[in-house]
Amino acid sequence: MEQLQAALIAITVLRSNVDRVFGIFLNDLHSGEQNKQVAYLQGLLSTVNMNLRNVVRKIKNLKPISHPLYLERMNNFNQQSAEKRQINYMMTTLTQFFGDMTISASKSVKSDISFDITLGYILKAVIIIRGMMIEWIVVKGYEESIDLWTQSRHKVFRKVTENALAAILHFDSVEYPELGVQSFMIWFHTLINLFIEPCKHCGLHLNKFSPPTWRDFHNGEAYHEEFIEKSVPDGASVGEN
């Protein structure tokens, strides 16, 4: 604490003398007598130079802060920065791999790690990622404005949002969180054929005026909601581990 106080005092002295230098310079500039106090100014500049060396010396004597709370916050900050870089790299790689899926930093949500996703001309989505895990997603139609607070006005995309939230829980992995995010994004890409892939069970594109909105977690096959239980042996849900 004494070393910190000494450094602060040295900085205060330096700032005071620098202010005096600029004060003299400005006064002489306005008065047209630039040479009037040259000798005094040179002496003051020497003092400033000495003050600066003193500040540098005091700062070098300071010991790094080792308070547990400070260290914890620094560790958390470094971890979050590393996670953000890792997630950004993953999303960039996925965008390059899937030519029909665009992933970019969200413009509608002010969050450290949020992304806008566009699947062809089919749909849009916004996701929030915290701690290398997907926290939330909202899916809407391609022509709709995207945000986290309002649902799609179309029933089909509200159902897709529900299924995507279920997929988040399915792929969530505490042990391998990065793999969980990547697996979800690959699964999400299967929705590119939302309106053209027939139901694996009934073979129809529409059932009760709705396309098959469910995608199997393992192979991405399309199912109408009504046929999920019927399409898997022993009554297990599609995509169940």
TrEMBL record:
Coiled coil: none annotated. Its main location: nucleus. GO terms for molecular function: transcription coactivator activity. InterPro entries: Mediator_Med27. The keyword Ubl conjugation does not apply. GO terms for biological process: regulation of transcription by RNA polymerase II. It holds the Pfam family Med27. One of its GO terms (cellular component) is mediator complex. Keywords: Nucleus, Transcription, Transcription regulation. This is Mediator of RNA polymerase II transcription subunit 27. It comes from Vespula pensylvanica. The lineage of its organism: Eukaryota, Metazoa, Ecdysozoa, Arthropoda, Hexapoda.
